[in-house]
Design brief:
Elements (H helix, E strand, L loop, with lengths): L4 H18 L10 E4 L8 E4 L11 H10 L1 H7 L26 H44 L4 E4 L2 E4 L23
Antiparallel strand pairs: 1-2, 3-4
Helix pairs in contact: 1-2
Length: 184
């Protein structure tokens, strides 16, 4: 936008306002703000004179502190930001941290809840598979017993041949071929 006498007046008024807000007892007027070396690119330097003595200037540290304290108000008056309105040797104010649209605790809660639900589903599916496997093994065993085939028992998780208790069991190690039956 064009920098003209009205814009200069507004800048001087904002600097006088900042100086008044910084030191409450100060009576800084617009005439106490002097602009020097104004260029077409809107570049200039300025000084603020002491209202009680028009000859002396206000110390640079006080002017910088006043600008820092009222930076947002100055930027708003010119509809600018810290990136577009630059005061040399005065650091820009930090912008407030960005607040995410979703709170962090809600994201963490969602992740933990999903992990818990996935664990429960896994346990249920594993239990169903194990039950089907046991049912299948027991039906196979029952089918073998019904057919009269040798029964296989499981002891301590190890399949063992069942003994035919009616016929007995002969240990082949102790029985010799010729002495199969002992005489009385």
């Amino acid at each position: 936008y064009a920098w003209d006498a009205n814009e200069e007046y507004l800048f001087k008024a904002m600097m006088a306002f900042a100086m008044r807000r910084y030191s409450s007892k100060s009576t800084t007027q617009i005439s106490n703000v002097l602009l020097c070396n104004v260029t077409d690119r809107v570049s200039f330097w300025f000084v603020v004179t002491d209202p009680s003595k028009n000859v002396t200037t206000v110390p640079r540290s006080e002017v910088e502190a006043a600008i820092r304290m009222n930076r947002n108000r100055i930027n708003s008056a010119f509809l600018l930001s810290d990136k577009t309105l630059q005061f040399l040797k005065i650091t820009s104010t930090l912008s407030p941290p960005v607040e995410p649209s979703t709170p962090v605790w809600l994201i963490v809660f969602g992740v933990v809840l999903c992990l818990i639900v996935a664990g429960i589903v896994f346990l249920v599916v594993a239990g169903i598979r194990q039950r089907k496997k046991k049912n299948k093994e027991s039906t196979e065993r029952e089918n073998l017993e019904e057919k009269g085939e040798v029964t296989v028992t499981v002891e301590n998780g190890i399949p063992c041949e069942a003994l035919d208790l009616k016929a007995g069991h002969i240990n082949g190690v102790f029985a010799a071929d010729d002495e199969r039956f002992t005489s009385l």
